[in-house]
Amino acid sequence: MSNLETQYDFNQNTILIHIQLLPKTDANQPRNAVLAVGIKNSPPIITSTTVEQLELPTLITKMLSQLEAELPERKAAALKLAEEQETEEISQNYKQRKVEAPPPVPSSTQTSTTSPQKHQLTLF
Description:
The protein is of the alpha+beta class. The chain is built from two helices and three strands, in the order αβββα. A hairpin with a 6-residue loop joins β2 and β3 (45-50).
C-alpha cells in the first residue's frame, strides 16, 4: 500500500475525537458542545449540539463530576502559587535594584583648594 492509501485507511489511522463543552452564556440556556472527529493532517467533521443531547459514556460523566468537585481546590492551589510567585518576584526585584550615584557637581561651583575659602564671615 502507498503512503496515501495508508494515511486515509480508517483501520490504519488514529481517530481523533474532540469534545469541547462551552461555557453557559445565559443561566436559562443549555450549555453548548462542539464535537469534531477526524484524522491527522485532514480537516475534521465538526458539529455542535447541547450537552443535554450528548449521550456521554459513564466514564466521561464521572470524570466531569470529579473535575467539577476538584475545581475549587485547584483554584486555591493556583492562587497560592500565584501569590508565592509574586512574592518571589518582588524579592528578586528588591535584591537587584541599584541606587544611582548623585550627578557630579559642575566644576564652576566647586571650591578651589589653592584659593582661600570665602564664606560670609570673611567677606566683612
